[in-house]
């Protein structure tokens, strides 16, 4: 449920030009491409097949770099597996390789300095509640129908700055593997801060849902079309990439 519900939170105007504002995402090949009919469905959904456990040097990562270079939006689940807890697990190194290869070789190898490179904008996203809506069981099975009326919290963080780290790599102050590790650690730190904020917001959501069930009954979540999903008026998100600008304000 995570992928459709995440982007269902975006306003309808984001879908006017799908080639620019709809994400490409990395999806497990064994789940998304098991046969031709299912593969066609996920291909139209802009899912790039990745072989889990095959490392960072594989066609899916190469494809992600090419997509970014043409101005596309690539979404990655950095944990590399379904995590149904509220704790982060070790992140994969794919993001590190994507950023480093996008930025090009070191200065000693003829690469450009960072002030001449337009790097991708990396925005962390953390969500809680998906595991209650459609839980995956230990045998990789799941319910046919999702649970309705469950609280769901999605938080978009500030862009992560890798400029200084990439400059150190460009100048040869740190080697390739160390740079990948540090990029991954920086992503983890940003996600951890976002996790703490999301936990607090999600707890508030759950408390409001409990009160609404008491006051309005079990079907409290059914509302007329146009009802606001967010109770806070100061939540803002701005995503900008080259000539594409989307701003969500006062949700």
From TrEMBL:
<keyword id="KW-0443">Lipid metabolism</keyword>
<dbReference type="GO" id="GO:0005741">
    <property type="term" value="C:mitochondrial outer membrane"/>
</dbReference>
<feature type="domain" description="Phospholipid/glycerol acyltransferase">
    <location>
        <begin position="1"/>
        <end position="130"/>
    </location>
</feature>
<keyword id="KW-0472">Membrane</keyword>
<comment type="similarity">
    <text>Belongs to the taffazin family.</text>
</comment>
<dbReference type="InterPro" id="IPR002123">
    <property type="entry name" value="Plipid/glycerol_acylTrfase"/>
</dbReference>
<keyword id="KW-0012">Acyltransferase</keyword>
<dbReference type="Pfam" id="PF01553">
    <property type="entry name" value="Acyltransferase"/>
</dbReference>
<dbReference type="GO" id="GO:0047184">
    <property type="term" value="F:1-acylglycerophosphocholine O-acyltransferase activity"/>
</dbReference>
<keyword id="KW-1000">Mitochondrion outer membrane</keyword>
<protein>
    <recommendedName>
        <fullName>Tafazzin family protein</fullName>
    </recommendedName>
</protein>
<dbReference type="InterPro" id="IPR000872">
    <property type="entry name" value="Tafazzin"/>
</dbReference>
<keyword id="KW-0496">Mitochondrion</keyword>
<dbReference type="GO" id="GO:0035965">
    <property type="term" value="P:cardiolipin acyl-chain remodeling"/>
</dbReference>
<dbReference type="GO" id="GO:0005743">
    <property type="term" value="C:mitochondrial inner membrane"/>
</dbReference>
<keyword id="KW-0808">Transferase</keyword>
<dbReference type="GO" id="GO:0007007">
    <property type="term" value="P:inner mitochondrial membrane organization"/>
</dbReference>
<keyword id="KW-0999">Mitochondrion inner membrane</keyword>
């Amino acid at each position: 449920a995570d992928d459709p519900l995440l982007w269902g939170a975006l306003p309808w105007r984001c879908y006017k030009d799908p080639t620019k504002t709809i994400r490409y995402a990395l999806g497990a090949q064994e789940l998304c491409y098991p046969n031709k009919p299912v593969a066609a469905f996920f291909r139209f959904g802009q899912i790039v097949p990745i072989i889990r456990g095959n490392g960072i040097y594989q066609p899916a990562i190469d494809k992600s770099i090419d997509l970014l270079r043409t101005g596309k939006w690539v979404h990655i689940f950095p944990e590399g597996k379904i995590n149904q807890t509220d704790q982060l697990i070790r992140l994969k190194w794919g993001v590190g390789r994507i950023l480093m290869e996008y930025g090009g070789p070191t200065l000693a190898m003829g690469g450009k300095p960072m002030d001449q490179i337009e790097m991708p904008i990396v925005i962390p996203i953390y969500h809680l509640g998906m595991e209650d809506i459609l839980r995956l069981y230990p045998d990789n099975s799941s319910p046919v129908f999702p649970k309705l009326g469950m609280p769901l919290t999605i938080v978009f963080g500030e862009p992560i700055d890798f400029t200084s780290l990439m400059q150190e790599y460009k100048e040869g102050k740190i080697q390739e593997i160390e740079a990948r590790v540090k990029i991954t650690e920086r992503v983890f730190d940003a996600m951890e801060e976002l996790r703490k904020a999301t936990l607090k917001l999600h707890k508030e959501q759950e408390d409001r849902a409990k009160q609404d069930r008491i006051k309005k009954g079990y079907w409290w979540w059914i509302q007329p079309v146009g009802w606001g999903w967010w109770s806070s008026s100061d939540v803002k998100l701005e995503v900008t990439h080259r000539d594409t600008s989307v701003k969500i304000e006062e949700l």
